[in-house]
Amino acid sequence: MMEALSRTESLKLIVTNQLLEDECQRLQQKLVDQSRELAKLRGDDERQAALSMLEELAAMKPKPKPEGERSSETPEKRRKSPRRGHGPTQQDIEAQDVVHELPELRCSNCGELSLEEMNSAEISEEISIETSRVIKLRHLRKKYTCGCDEGTVVTAPGPVKLIKGGRYSVEFAAHAAVSKMVDHLPLHRQTRMLERQGVKVTPQALWDQLARLAEVLAPSAEAIRRRILESEYLHADETGFLLTAGGGKKRLTLWSISTPELAWYTVARKDYNAGEQILGTYKGIVVADGYRVYEQLAARDGPNGKELRLAHCWAHVLRKFREAYEHRPKDCARVLELIGKLYIVERKAAESQPGDLEYLARKRSTRSKVLVQGIKKWALSQTGLPRSDFIKAVKYMLARWEGLTRFLDDARLPLDNNAAERSLRGPVLGRKNWLQFRSRRGCRAGAVLFSLCESAKLSGVDPEEYLRVAAKRALEEPGAVTLPGDLS
Q1: Residue 367 DSSP one-character state
Q2: Quick check: is 97 in a domain?
Q3: How far is the C-alpha of 411 from the C-alpha of 284, rounded, in Å?
Q4: CA-CA-CA-CA torsion for 257, 263, 265, 271, nearest 10 degrees?
């Protein structure tokens, strides 16, 4: 036993040393290549000298190892030979050592059983998968009795259940929910996958688990909505969804409001009443596209004036001019260049001082402000047919100028509404796979589960773990609220 343990430790040491040696060689070569390029650009003799020194350093062989630890390849061979395998080295994956031994210690030359183990090994890596297992848990609830005259019998409590008397665990329901809402697997496809593991379950049984899970977690989804509406700015967007209930088809809309950490969804009609119900009480800045409902909500007067303000999306302006590029390429190229420079200012500020809003505000008040003034001056000088795509793009931009320039006065605001579109990407991919909601109850359940799963992703929390923990807390204490931040 001790001998086997020492072999494993020796192999781990060999693997570690070889990986470190390979990484040093790679970094040295990278430094040489970058120094050569920099010297070529600047024509600096001192850098040429430094380059020569670095090349000598990279060419140096490592000190010889003890005979038992020497690898079968030299560093030069490893560096010059083409890389084998596919993809990166996958450093973040848990590693396990698998030791391979000869079944027989017979020499192929002399034929004798004379082979002796060396303190060396050939090392290679492969990425493998252990298939998830479905297991049946038998809960043995022990019984206890008291010696008193009452004959008291007490049974240990069992696990919490989504459905009273049900045979599926909370973990099972959370896995099915994430498979559909995050991985976009329709329920009938999940049933086929489970059947290959020996589990016979119908799509209706899976749906019952998801519906009950959404019911239990509805208070947490509502808490997410309240938290988003408490923020000083949020993103809003919407996308179509199909409801096929009672044999008919009805087009509805999946509305989304989000912050960098949370997202909330609801299914409703695409009209003013739905927008008013979602954002009617909000007091802050809404980053949105040019949909008229948002503009109507912003035009209302509250007790303290206009309480909802809009920050419009420069990405939508870009798309308008890209669509018109075919007809007015020269004019569109000019405005696209100016808008592109706005994004360059943002990117350089983020690279130079990441997360520093004061630094970003200074850059916007100088460079971005000048660019915005140039864009407006250009737009006011344009002429063309009123119904042309180009003039429509110009009018679209000028009509929303106040919202488009709001970012100049508030460094927290982004240039566009791309964050909202990213938060809708998951539901849209799901829509392409499982097509539609089949009932009003399905709409409500889908909106709740989308809200929880997407919020978990934005918060850097595993959605399946989040659903499992939140559901068990809600079952143990009905109405309990768990936000993704409670797990991180």
Answers
A1: I
A2: no
A3: 15
A4: 10
The answer to whether position 368 is within a domain reads: yes
The SS3 call for residue 119 is coil
Domain span including residue 390: 314-416
Q: What is the dihedral of CA 358, 361, 366, 369, to 10 degrees?
A: 180
Give the per-residue pLDDT at 70.
44
**In the predicted model, is pLDDT for residue 73 greater than 50?**
no
Q: How confident is the model at residue 55 (pLDDT cuts 50, 70, 90)?
A: low
Residues 194 and 330 in one domain: no
Contact 249, 262 (CB under 8 A): no
Tokens of 63: 């000190």
Contact in structure between 79 and 29 (CB atoms under 8 Å): yes
Separation of alpha carbons 336 and 128, rounded Å: 47
Q: Is residue 218 situated within a structural domain? A: yes
In a domain, 307, yes or no: yes
Q: What's 63's DSSP letter? A: P
Pairing verdict, β 284-288 and 233-243: parallel
- Two tokens, residue 414: 């982004």
3-state DSSP helix/strand/coil % of the chain, to nearest 5: 55, 10, 40
- Predicted confidence (pLDDT) per residue in 168-178, tens digit: 999 999 999 99
Which one, of 319, 328, 275, lies nearest residue 299 by Cα?
A: 275
Statement to judge: residues 302 and 335 lie in one domain: no
Sign of CA dihedral 92, 96, 97, 101: negative
Could you give the CA distance from residue 391 to residue 258 in angstroms, rounded to a whole number? 32
Can you give the pLDDT at residue 250?
Answer: 86
d(CA 22, CA 25): 5
CB 244 within 8 A of CB 438: yes
Q: In what side-by-side order are the strands of the sheet with 233-243?
A: 263-268, 250-258, 233-243, 284-288, 308-312
